[in-house]
């Protein structure tokens, strides 16, 4: 059976997702085109040899509508003969794009594919794709969940309550994310993947001076009297400081087979060893990373002890800490270069951003196996195991 390997990975710096943010002036199509162009230039491949470009974006409306990935590929100079598509598995969209790309290579349907993602949350704000008064769920969901679903922030609070995760533990985790991200920038550990946009060279949301004392002064971000009556167990401890921020950014990885890489003179960096996707309770929507981790390990024939490094998306500190409690993973191996709380979470770009970060971290440490997993709205999660080559 053919394998699927990553030969290169790139990403933009991550900007603050608000007017005045470092990348606000760049159209999302151009953000993604920037990474695609860099990937083709760095690898030296003939862009006409690309079989498909599979991208992720969450809010596919306005400037991210009409199959953003296709327009980004054309803007990057890829020949018109190369197709492209845009998928939505919420925050895991570009990780799912990488799964689709790898599955196509393994099946023999593709030889060379780019998986990528973009989100410009300053130009296309969250929920832009749900007009006021619109119901994206329909009557069947209302009947199945008569008490109603909840926003992700409330889900993060429910997770903290269910797993007994304190405000102090979440703030310490968040402060550590900033320390690790700042150290990674200072040590040049992102140099292998970062492709500057104009004069933007670093991730804008990283705050090296963040401390637990500073974070302790922030007010709960999602406190709501109606939700408090419905969920009296909530202590209201999720804040802007222990959650991922709103961001702009794009990322991409090039995936091929070992045989094609050899033919093109490319050196594989990692093999996509195993992948899985699973669902869970949409009320506790951010917990699917727990069964996804278990499933991908079973598929791989590996145990948690075999995994050298983890990338677990830091949508909220409570999500990662609950995952750690359930899996027993060593937190010193998790997000060693910081996570989304510090680096940022441009939704559609985060999957392949994590993948590129993990590839580089495995190489830096001479490690073999890495596992990444991503919680997703609606109660889903992707998980991927990479093997360094």
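Sequence proposed for the structure above (389 residues):
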């Amino acid at each position: 059976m053919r394998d699927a390997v990553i030969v290169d990975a790139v990403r933009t710096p991550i900007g603050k997702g608000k007017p005045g943010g470092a990348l606000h002036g760049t159209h999302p199509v151009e953000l993604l085109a920037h990474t695609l162009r860099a990937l083709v230039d760095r690898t030296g491949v003939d862009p006409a040899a690309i079989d498909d470009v599979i991208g992720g974006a969450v809010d596919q409306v306005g400037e991210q509508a009409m199959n953003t990935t296709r327009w980004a590929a054309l803007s990057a100079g890829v020949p018109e003969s190369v197709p492209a598509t845009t998928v939505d598995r919420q925050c895991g969209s570009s990780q799912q794009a990488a799964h689709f790309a790898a599955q196509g290579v393994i099946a023999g349907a593709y030889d060379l594919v780019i998986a990528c993602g973009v989100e410009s949350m300053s130009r296309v704000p969250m929920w832009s794709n749900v007009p006021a008064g619109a119901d994206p769920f329909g009557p069947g969901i209302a009947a199945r969940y008569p008490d109603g679903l909840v926003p992700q922030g409330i889900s993060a609070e429910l997770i903290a309550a269910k797993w007994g995760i304190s405000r102090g533990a979440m703030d310490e985790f968040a402060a550590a994310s900033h320390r690790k991200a700042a150290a990674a920038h200072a040590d040049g550990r992102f140099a292998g993947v970062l492709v500057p946009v104009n004069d933007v060279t670093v991730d804008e949301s990283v705050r090296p001076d963040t401390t637990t004392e500073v974070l302790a002064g922030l007010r709960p971000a999602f406190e709501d009297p109606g939700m408090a009556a419905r969920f009296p167990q909530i202590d209201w401890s999720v804040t802007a400081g222990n959650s991922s921020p709103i961001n702009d950014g794009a990322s991409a990885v090039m995936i091929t087979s070992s045989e094609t890489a050899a033919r093109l003179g490319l050196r594989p960096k990692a093999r996509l060893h195993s992948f899985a996707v699973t669902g869970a309770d949409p009320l506790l929507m951010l917990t699917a990373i727990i069964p996804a981790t278990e499933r991908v390990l079973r598929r791989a024939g590996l145990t948690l002890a075999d995994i050298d490094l983890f990338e677990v998306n830091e949508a909220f500190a409570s999500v990662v800490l609950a995952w750690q409690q359930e899996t027993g993973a060593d937190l010193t191996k998790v997000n060693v270069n910081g996570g989304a709380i510090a680096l940022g979470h441009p939704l559609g770009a985060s999957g392949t951003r994590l993948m590129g970060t993990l590839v580089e971290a495995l190489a830096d440490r001479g490690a073999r196996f890495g596992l990444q997993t991503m919680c997703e709205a609606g109660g889903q999660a992707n998980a991927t195991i990479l093997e360094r080559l």
